[in-house]
Each structure stands twice: as C-alpha cells, then as structure tokens.
Design brief:
It is built from 9 helices and 8 strands. It is α/β, with parallel strands linked by helices. Strand 4, helix 4 and strand 5 form a beta-alpha-beta unit.
C-alpha cells in the first residue's frame, strides 16, 4: 500500500485535505497533523471510499503539545497515552492495520521548537528513558493488539545543531545500533517505520554510513516514510527515481508513505508512480 501523507497540509482542516486529495483520485491517505477538527473522527469513519492510516499527531488535540511516550512528566505522559489510545480506537474503526508514532525524547520540547533547534533544558538519563519507552511501547502495543492494530515506531531525526547545543543526543532511536537494540526488547505487535529523511540527517550528524545503516536495518523494517533533504535538516523535500533509498528499498511491505510537503497534488501522484514502478520492477 502506498499512502500520501497529509503532513504537508498542516494549515487545513483534515476534512478539506481529504476532499482535495479525493478530487485528484487519491484515496490511500496517511492522516497526519493538520488543524484541530471537532468532527473529524465521525467524518472519516463515514467515508468508505478511502484507505486510511493514522500517524502520530492525529487526531489533532484541541490544545497543542508534544507527544512523548517516554516523558518523566506524568501529565505529558497521560496526555500522550490518551491521544494514542484515541488514535488506535479510530484506526480500529477505520479497519486500518497500523498506527505509527515517533520515538521518545530525553526532554519535553516546546511545541514551537519541534522540528527545529530545541530549547536547551536538562536531559533525563538515557538508560532510564530508553527502558521507560520500551515498557510503555509494549503496553500501548498490547492495547492496540486487542483492537487489531499494529504499532509502528518511527526513528527520530538528530541535527548537528541539536547535538552541539546539548553536547549529547537528546533523542531516542536515531542511530542504527539503538534502533536494533530497541526492537529486540519490544513485543511482536511493534514494528519499525523507517523515515529515510530522518536517517539521512542523523547519519550526517552521528557520522555513520547511510547506505550501510539502511542495509543493517532492512530486516526489521515494516514500513517507510519517503522524502529527501540536504542531510542537514529534515525538510521533507521531493525525490526522484535515482534517490538513494529507492536503490535498495525493501519489497513487499504493506506500508509506504510519501511524506513530501507540497500542495502540488500532481507532483505527489508522480512520486507515487515512481515508488510503485520501482516496487513492481524489483519484485519481478
């Protein structure tokens, strides 16, 4: 299944984004972000013409906050858990096989700094946060299993600016070694969603080989987020048939999502064709 992400339509109500995509005959949609909508859950459940998958910050809560399942702040943890359960319940109603979300942090960022240089605050001990995240992900996965939904965890992106600012890595699951270590500790209802753009930036920052990392992670990958960037920041730029990740992309998965941030629907459709052609040709 090749999805088109709604992540690039953050200023629109999800209902409007879905209509825009449907007008261009795009019916396989990854719901991610957008503006808060009071009626979105009922609206999309009634729409039987689409195949949906829910990712991370969806449905968008009325008051914004940064999702962090690894948080040591009990209020943020409870809000995150509540949001995830709501997403899982909606996934069940939509008969969606997966719900995906980002790995945790060693701090609780301000929403306005997410995706940018983070505000420097004290980091929690890495080992403690890692183990907390493992435990909580398994608990969420157990809840999701009862709803016939599988959890996919996405790798974080570490920029050089954030590494230099903190003097150490403030994020979980940015290096191949930690990603593999994490998935050895999770149960069978947890899978890995590889964001290739995140991996590219993190490889520059942490100075590991991008191609070798992809190859090393390939056996545990259950889904992809596809976009490109300059290796310095996660800009969700477009890609083409010669992009690095397409040369060795894992075949026969149920989850490929084009997460390119553009309002040009025809461009998104062309990207979908590129991915589809690559998957078909490599499977022959």
């Amino acid at each position: 299944m090749i999805y088109i992400s709604t992540g690039g339509f953050k200023d629109l109500l999800p209902e409007k984004t879905i209509k825009i995509l449907n007008k261009k005959n795009i019916n396989c949609i990854e719901l991610s972000g957008g503006r808060y909508s009071k009626k979105i859950s009922n609206s999309i459940v009634k729409n039987n013409n689409n195949v949906f998958a829910i990712h991370n910050y969806f449905p968008v809560p009325k008051k914004s906050f940064v999702l962090n399942l690894a948080s040591t702040d009990s209020q943020i943890y409870r809000k995150t858990l509540r949001n995830f359960k709501r997403s899982i319940n909606l996934s069940n109603k939509l008969k969606s096989r997966y719900f995906s979300f980002h790995a945790g942090f060693l701090l609780d960022p301000n929403p306005k700094h997410l995706g940018k240089t983070l505000e420097k605050i004290k980091l929690q001990p890495r080992k403690k946060i890692f183990e907390t995240f493992v435990k909580r992900v398994n608990e969420v996965a157990n809840y999701a299993k009862k709803k016939n939904v599988k959890i996919l965890i996405e790798n974080n992106v570490l920029t050089k600016k954030n590494l230099l600012k903190f003097g150490s890595n403030p994020l979980l699951l940015t290096s191949p070694s930690e990603i593999i270590k994490f998935f050895k500790k999770t149960n069978n209802n947890v899978g890995f969603l590889l964001d290739v753009g995140h991996l590219k930036v993190s490889s520059k920052t942490l100075e590991f080989n991008l191609f070798k990392a992809h190859k090393k992670l390939k056996r545990i990958i259950e889904g992809y987020h596809l976009s490109d960037n300059n290796g310095l920041e996660d800009s969700n730029k477009s890609f083409d048939k010669n992009s690095w990740f397409l040369k060795d992309i894992k075949q026969n998965l149920s989850y490929y999502s084009i997460e390119v941030y553009t309002s040009d629907i025809n461009k998104l459709k062309k990207l979908k064709k590129i991915v589809k052609k690559k998957l078909i040709n490599d499977s022959k």
